[in-house]
Each structure stands twice: as C-alpha cells, then as structure tokens.
Amino acid sequence: MTARRLHRITAYPVAVFIALHLANHIALFWGPEAHLAVQSLLRPIYRNPAVEPLLIAAFAFQIGLGLSLIWQRGWPTRTWPRIQIFSGGILAFFLMQHISATLFTRWAKPEIDTTIYWAASVVSRWEFGMYFAPYCTLGIAALFWHVAATVARHPVRHTRATTIGAAGTIFAIALIVTLAGGVFAIALPAPYTAYLDTFWTL
User: Fold this and answer.
1) Residues 6+ apart with CB under 8 A from 170
2) How confident is the model at residue 202 (pLDDT cuts 50, 70, 90)?
3) What is the mean pLDDT of the chain?
C-alpha cells in the first residue's frame, strides 16, 4: 500500500471527528447556548478515555504522513495539485497549534474549559485577534480547499471542487466574525478574561 493511499484511508476517522466538530461550530450561529448544548452531546464520544488517545494519534499520523508526502512530491505544475499541497501545509500547521493549545490549556489551566468561550476569547481583543483571526480563518478554509483538491482529481468535478473551497472560505469568515462578536455579543465569563490578561501581562 502506498503512503498516499494510506493517507487517504486513515483520513476517514479524522474526517468523522472534523465533521462533528464543524457541525458543533455551525450551531454557534444560533447562539453560544446552542453551541454548548451540541458540545455537551458530542464530548462523551470524542473525550471518551478509550477514544481520545486514538483520535489524537490519528491526527498526529495524518499530519506527519501528509507533511512527508508534501516533501516527497515537491512543487507540482498543475493548479489543483498546488492547491492540495498549499492547503495541506496550512492545515497541518493549524492542526498542530490548535490541538496542542487545546491540550495545553486543559492541562495548565484546568479552570478554563475549552468551550466556545475559549475560542471566542482569542478574537475578542484586537491584540490577540490580529493573529488568531487570520490564523483560524486560513486554517478552516484550508480544510475545505484540501478536500476540494481531492475532489478535483477528476476533471469533470472541478466546478464542484471550486464550490466546496469557496463555500468553506465563506463559512470560515462567517464563523470568525461571529466569534469576534460581529453578529451578536458573546459575553465572556470572568475566568476567560482573566486568562487573556495572564498572557497579555507576560
């Protein structure tokens, strides 16, 4: 079995989690309470002690194998393969930082629950938002463009692939704008504002 085929096959369990995670984020458009309600239903599944270590290992494997494939392949000449490599690199960086930040916060700051308030906190102030807003937007958009590049392996599906990438980019922008309070106010509980203060005073 080739590394490329192995990368695709092992992507399925990761894709299931990502789909659930994105569905959870979609609930935010109905308010923080809706997001928290959906999250409370999903967490017993992916935070199960028997599931979570395997899920983290699957992500690590996907990232490592994906970066290895990028290194081996080099820079292609066609547009969609270039999009696949470029989006894959951005996605790998985003996932490494996002997953490690989540695990670190849970370990170092047990009083901070990594809910929607944690995600909103880093775009609630301009000094953090200058980095996290484009970082999160690019990371989410890269996911959709990476999927789109896979779809575009068949020439007749190029239009469908472009639609997937464009829709994902719009979703990413809408989500970050909502997290930043651009649609409705998200009142951060006191522990989250204090959490931000500790970083800003370092």
Assistant:
1) none
2) very low
3) 90
Domain chopping of the chain, boundaries: 3-200
Cα Dmax for the chain:
54
**What tokens were used for 185?**
């106010």
- Rounded Cα distance, 182 and 189, in Å: 18
What's the pLDDT at 168? 97
Q: Across residues 14-21, what is the average pLDDT?
A: 93
Tokens 């935070």: give the residue. Answer: 47
Average pLDDT score over residue span 129-149:
96
Query: What's the pTM value of the predicted model, to 2 decimals?
Result: 0.91
Q: Tell me which amino acid residue 81 is.
A: P
